[in-house]
Design brief:
Layout: H1 3-16, H2 24-30, E1 35-39, E2 42-45, E3 50-53, H3 56-59, H4 68-80, H5 93-105, E4 110-116, H6 119-136, E5 144-148, H7 157-162, H8 166-169, E6 178-181, H9 186-189, H10 195-213, E7 218-223, H11 239-249, E8 253-257, H12 271-274, E9 281-284, E10 296-301, H13 302-309, H14 325-340, H15 343-349, H16 351-360, E11 368-374, E12 377-385, E13 390-391, H17 397-408, E14 411-412, E15 414-416, E16 419-422, H18 430-447
Parallel strand pairs: 3-14, 5-6, 5-7, 7-8, 8-9
Antiparallel strand pairs: 1-2, 2-3, 4-10, 9-10, 11-12, 12-13, 12-16, 15-16
Helix pairs in contact: 4-14, 5-14, 10-11, 16-18, 17-18
Bound molecules: pyridoxal-5'-phosphate.
Length: about 450
């Protein structure tokens, strides 16, 4: 691509394209980088600069970018049946097959799926499902949902309301029946407490919130196994067992938002398996098609599905593209690659422990307060003072600077608060993980 074309593209983009989660004023002044191709775990901009993609796109291209089987499956499907809806007693072959394939990879007790295009829509769908469930059980007051501060469940009004991102809440009026409890972020909020004691205390806020709101009014608790967009918040070991106990003892549904954690990221097919809890509903999206086509949905556990499927009456909810044939074809190809190549098990045994071990070598760096992570996801918390854990800056400027240094060194990572976040593709080699860690090291040196 010639320089001239790049300049023209950048100008068109700057002048006419409103980007997600972007300062429009700033972007229209500075513009951005245009990406033009990708191969394996590398992406290339329009000037052919290469970047190691330490974020798997946006936590979605878990198998990297060179997956001809997925592309071929979509291509074939587009030629055969590019679209038909799944309303009015209609279905299509890939949607039916994908539903069955998903049931095979999700934990026992999940035998039904509702398809959406994205994680946000899937979480909107969760609200509709839990409200319908309790209505059918003749508990119409059970409408309140509890989420977590700093959780991320998407960007539609309902999904953002479930989430606890303060800066997002400030910009819109959310739905009023969602309440939030604290996140299990020991490094930032645990002070000098014992990690597991902190985990228990934060989990017990759920019990207190249910009591405060009245169990007869609360429908569900939603949480990510590991908070991803919030900064890879790894819960203390004590956290999930306590949440499970509370949900078992109380009549509320547990929704596991696995949009990031699902499909192998944490070392198992789903994060709830890594942390050994049993949700009633599982949200998925992103890596289900390796990010190649938009597809999301809710895996509905038998407890809920049995009520929904044995009562008369239409579920008043759906999307034009629910179960889109091309997206489901991409999903089927993705799952079959993962199964044939034993991707989840192999990653958990080889490259994931290597990534975690190599990243821990950054712990000694003077501005690193904590390296945390599991499976193929990690965060490096930047600090001014290692012992006191004093913040590196009052705003996120240092982490943003560090991220930009990483990009200048040919590595795509993300800055969240004071943390550098990485979630590289599961098909990365040891050499490529070495490259990632070296480039990150250089970015830390430049920030120190
Ligand atoms: N849930 C979680 C845990 C996410 O991380 C995201 C996106 O990052 C979403 C939901 C929203 O998904 P989408 O952007 O596909 O709407």
């Amino acid at each position: 691509m010639s320089k001239n074309t790049t300049a023209q593209l950048q100008q068109a983009d700057r002048n006419h394209h409103l980007h997600p989660f972007t300062d429009f004023k700033q972007y229209s002044a500075t513009g951005g980088r245009i990406f033009s191709r990708a191969e394996h775990i590398y992406i290339y901009d329009s000037e052919d600069n290469q970047f190691l993609d330490g974020m798997s796109g946006l936590w979605c291209c878990n198998l990297g970018y060179s997956q001809p089987k997925i592309i071929e499956a979509v291509n074939q499907q587009m030629q055969q049946l590019p679209y038909y809806n799944n309303f009015f007693n209609c279905s299509n072959q890939p949607a039916a097959e994908m539903a069955k394939a998903l049931v095979e990879v999700t934990p026992d007790g999940f035998n039904n799926v509702f398809f959406t295009n994205s994680g946000s829509e899937a979480n909107d769908t969760n609200i509709r499902l839990v409200h319908r469930y309790y209505d059918l059980l003749e508990k119409p007051n059970k409408k309140l949902i509890i989420g977590r501060k700093n959780g991320y469940h998407g960007s539609t009004i309902a999904a953002a309301s479930l989430g606890g991102m303060e800066f997002m809440h400030k910009q819109y009026r959310g739905i009023d029946y969602v309440h939030h409890i604290d996140q299990p972020h020991w490094f930032a909020e645990g002070g000098d407490s014992d990690k597991n004691e902190f985990g228990l205390q934060v989990a017990r806020q759920l019990e207190a919130k249910i009591d405060e709101l009245g169990e007869e009014n609360v429908a569900a608790f939603i949480a990510e196994p590991i908070q991803g967009a919030g900064g890879v918040i790894i819960p203390p070991d004590s956290y999930w067992p306590e949440i499970q106990r509370i949900c078992n003892e109380r009549d509320i549904l547990l929704i596991s938002d696995e949009v990031i954690c699902g499909f192998g990221r944490t070392g198992n097919w789903f994060g709830c398996e890594t942390y050994n809890y049993q949700p009633d509903l599982i949200t998925f999206a992103k890596a289900v098609t390796n990010g190649f086509q938009p597809l999301g949905g809710v895996m509905v556990g038998d407890k809920v599905a049995n009520v929904l499927k044995t009562n008369d009456g239409e579920f008043g909810h759906g999307l034009t593209y629910s179960g889109h044939p091309a997206s489901c074809a991409a999903g089927l190809a993705t799952l079959s690659i993962m199964q044939e190549q034993n991707i989840v098990e192999n990653t958990a045994q080889t490259i994931a422990p290597y990534l975690q071990q190599q990243l821990r070598s950054l712990s000694d760096h003077p501005i690193v307060g904590e390296v945390r992570g599991t499976g193929m996801v990690a965060a490096i918390e930047l600090v001014k003072n290692k012992n006191s854990r004093e913040k590196i800056a009052d705003d996120s400027a240092a982490a943003v600077f560090c991220r930009d240094q990483a990009i200048n060194n040919g590595l795509m990572v993300r800055a969240v608060g004071d943390a550098m976040v990485t979630a590289p593709p599961m098909v990365s080699s040891k050499d490529e993980i070495d490259q990632l860690v070296q480039r990150l090291h250089r970015a830390l040196d430049a920030t120190a």
